[in-house]
Fold this protein.
Amino acid sequence: MPFVRTLHGDISPEEMKITYAHEHIVCRPPYWVEKKESDLLLDDKEKSLLDVQDFVDLGGKTIVDATAVDYGRDVAAVADIAERLSMHIIGTAGFNKSFLWDAAIPVHLQKKLGEFRSYGDWIEHTSVQGLTNHVTAEVEQGLEDTSHRAGQVKFGTGYNRITPLEEKTIRAVARAHHETGAPVHSHTEVGTMALEQIELLKKEDVPLDRVSFGHMDRNPDPYYHEQVAKTGAFLSFDGIGKIKYAPESTRLHCIFKLVEKGYASQILISGDTARKSYYRHYDYGPGLAYILESWVPRFIDEADQLGLDGKNLIHQFFVENPARCMTFHR
């Protein structure tokens, strides 16, 4: 029976309803803690809850929290938010990208991961099978020292390259996917290296229609997007609202190009709202409300002007596609 795994148990795909495909809710990334980058520390559960409440008030039901172990997640806090607001949050097993791995492993994780100097040290000195076992346990037993299980497995690579340790984590995550049936999510730095990641996933026999590639809108290249889409993979446009990278018109253009080429069923939407200055209730940013409140009406208007069915596309992007993407397949 198909199912989606949330922090509070397994649900049917139909129960997900309106979904953001890539967010961060409460996290204290060790790398940014060491760098004293306060803007990148989402460290106030109650403020985060207020933004999630805005999402729920606008009809949202599910958020995929893409925070992996090396990004300082607070599993208990995020699970509490989901419970208090009667909504679904999907947790993430796996890894992010290598430049974050210079950070020291927090004390509370040293017993589980081993007394290594850093995340990079742990990954370097652990076998692929050992890393696979770690990711598999996060899906089947629980994230860190909790009973809240992950609903997707994740890997990441840096800008314009894949390091040997990143390749190692890709292989471990791919094998954990085969062990668990969990969907796979990829971090691509500035939207690069997706095609190279795909070649590694093929070598590990991962069906590409089980994979979502994040940050595709950071590389606003319709030809590149089409090459990814041709594999059957999902493309996550998860920088909505980040005008410092590109105007919304650029993102909309890329999405419309994919729709016109027949790939509407492979598009996911979110904000990757990972800074205090993005959150409305931390620092008066656009917040988790922005996409449903402002971006969706604009999308529908522009889609209709192009002769596309804007409302139907929105239902695909936020309901149908996430439900297919996040479903486990044994």
Q: What stands out?
A: The two ends are 9 Å apart (CA to CA). The chain has a mean pLDDT of 97.
